[in-house]
Amino acid sequence: MRLDDQPWEGKYHEAVERLSREEAQWRDAETLLRQLVGCLTRAMQGAHDQLDSHIERLNEALAGPLAAAELGGVVRSLSETIDNLGARPYTPDQRSIAITRPRTEHGSSVQSSLSRLVDRIIVLPKLADRANDLRHDVANAGDLVALAACGDRLADLINEQRMGLQREIDALQAVLRHVTGRLDEMTQYMARELTDQATGETNGQVLDASVAHEIRVLGEAALELDDVHELRERVNASLETITACFREFRDREGARLTAYRERAEAMRLRIEQLETERHTLQRSLEREHELSQTDTMIGMPNRLAYEKRVDLAYQSWLVSQRPLGIAAIDIDHFKSINDTYGHTAGDAVLRVIGQALLKHVRPVDFVARYGGEEFIVIFDGTEPAEALQVCERLRGKIQHLNFHAARQLLRVTASIGLAHFQPGDTPASVFERADLALYTAKNGGRNRCIMG
Ligand SMILES: Nc1nc2c(ncn2[C@@H]2O[C@H](COP(=O)(O)OP(=O)(O)OP(=O)(O)O)[C@@H](O)[C@H]2O)c(=O)[nH]1
């Protein structure tokens, strides 16, 4: 469904839901980060006597709820100690070599966990460049000190993301309060108009009663009085009373009408203002919605967009049982492209491949960047054999793309795992099968498609 077609309240709720979902993802990321720091500290434990006490304090600080000020102090004193150790000349009996020597086994597992963590998180669009730089720096980190610094930056990024999300939630709540305030105003306006209408009716009734009274008095006088002059005076007096009643009624109604017009005009302006605000909010929600589901580096749908899309496809598959498949596409030996030609070249390769996939999938298929060097395609309504043919075609297109790096022609290949929904499946179970098929393709020599 296009965003335009949804009622405005629906968009608001969708935005709140999205924020809550992202907040939950960040909570997961925070948990992973805690585990990662635990990993890092285990790797560093025993590296140097001076470090052990700091590591202990860090672990204690991480065991409870995160207090940024306390944690900041611990991290600073740990960094200073590491800097001091790094500045000292190396002596063979110093165990500090464990910190600065080339990557240890622990180190590489920390690096790959950190790498996976950075790949998994979906950041707010404005933090995308920072996340990208961090991904590169994690991949290039040569030792545990550099990895620890990346861990610090990831923690900062997560904090900023959480604050950014909180800001968005606050802004949405402020809008909701504002709209509720306006609705209250309208309700009060309607109540006032109803009271006013009742006042108008009472005024009319008072006039009716006064006129009826005068006519009755006049009728009685006509029966009682024989003198024509006296009768004429009574008639004149009654007419004056009735005229005064009408004048009074007209004045009261005139004032009521003027006040009503002023209120109606003020309300019209309020409604106009509210409409303008609604438009502005709608545009910004639509933009946020689009950005939150776009991989800005490549300019294609991201994992969040995939998750929403596959969920919709899954819901309709449950009803229709039309064939539905998922293909996981992973670039082969991508790390060595980064290592040999640099991350900027790696980014360019990802962009070209992403664009090629967008260009060559059929209009009925949906393609997204799942994360890192992995893409994903949803085949909705396509039989497995036909989807496999499309995968083969995509694999061929990637293989024949020409890349030029360091004045050399570079060929890139990709492996693809395909799986279709079967009774009892969920998007997660099918993704798992596609991923398994992808690893079979990798183990089988890469540059191939395997059906899971
Ligand atoms: N340049 C660049 N590199 C990225 C990006 N995202 C992930 N990577 C890197 O992609 C690499 C993936 O490496 P691996 O998971 O070891 O996989 P591989 O080298 O492709 O090997 P196989 O998948 O087994 O063929 C890691 O070095 C990541 O840092 C990105 O946005 N830009």
Automatic annotation (TrEMBL):
Alphabetized InterPro entries for the sequence: Diguanylate_Cyclase (IPR050469), GGDEF_dom (IPR000160), Nucleotide_cyclase (IPR029787), Rev_trsase/Diguanyl_cyclase (IPR043128)
Domain GGDEF positions: 322-452
EC number: 2.7.7.65
GO molecular function terms noted in the UniProt entry: diguanylate cyclase activity
Enzyme class: transferase
Coiled coil: 257-291
Keywords linked to the UniProt accession: Coiled coil, Nucleotidyltransferase, Transferase
Substrates-to-products reaction catalysed: 2 GTP = 3',3'-c-di-GMP + 2 diphosphate
Protein name (Swiss-Prot/TrEMBL): diguanylate cyclase
Natural source organism: Luteibacter sahnii
Organism classification: Bacteria, Pseudomonadati, Pseudomonadota, Gammaproteobacteria, Lysobacterales
